Amino acid sequence: MSRYAYCVFCDDIRHELAGKHSFMGVYQGKLIVTEFPAVIHKLFAVIHIVTPQTRPFKSLEVTIEYNGQEMFRLPDTEGIVRRLASHASDASNESTFQGQVSFSPLHLEKPGMIKVKIVADGKKIPCGGLIIEADPNLQSE
C-alpha cells in the first residue's frame, strides 16, 4: 500500500457520542457564491493522511493555500508524527492522521482554488482542493 491523502470540505462538523463526527454541507469539489468579494461564515477542511504501519512518517507538513497564498500551515514537528503513531489501526495495517481546520470567517476577494499540500518525509502526497467560483443566478435558501 502506498501513502495517500484526501480532504473533505464542509460547512460544519458535529461531534457526536461514541467518537462519531457528522460533516454538514459537504462540498463536491466546488463552492459557488453569488458574487465577489464574498464572505463564507464558516468552512472546514478535514484532512486525512494515511501511511502503512510499516512506513511510519518521520516528518509531516500540511499547508493550505488560496490562489497561491498561504492560509494555514502545520509545520513539520515531531509531535505530529508521535501522535500519528498512536492512531495506528491494527485492522487495516495503516496509520491515519486526521486534522480539522476551521476558517471562520473566510474572506474571498476573487474566484480561485483552495489547495491542500502535504509533504511527508520530503515527498509530496496529492490531496486535492476546492474550487471557488461565482454564479450571479444562484439564489440563497
Verbal overview:
- There is one protein chain.
- The chain has 141 residues and is mainly β.
- It has one helix spanning 78-85, and strands at residues 4-15, 21-26, 30-33, 38-40, 43-52, 60-66, 69-74, 88-89, 94-103, 106-108, 112-120, 123-125, 129-134.
- It has a single domain (4-134), classed as Immunoglobulin-like, CATH 2.60.40.
- The strands form 3 sheets. Strands 3, 6, 7, 11, 12 and 13 form a 6-stranded mixed sheet that branches. Strands 2-1-5-9-8 form a 5-stranded antiparallel sheet, covered by helices on one side.
- Strand 11 (112-120) and strand 12 form a beta hairpin.
- The N and C termini lie far apart (44 Å).
Compute the average pLDDT.
88
Shape label: globular
Strand content: over 45%
What is the chain-wise order of helices and strands? EEEEEEEHEEEEEE
The value of Rg in angstroms is 16 Å
Largest sheet: 6 strands, mixed
Straight-line N-to-C gap: 44 Å
Q: Catalogue the unreliable spans.
A: none
Helix content: under 10%
Number of strands: 13
CATH hierarchy, class: Mainly Beta
Find the CATH topology: Immunoglobulin-like
Structural class: mainly beta
CATH architecture, by name, is Sandwich
The number of domains is 1
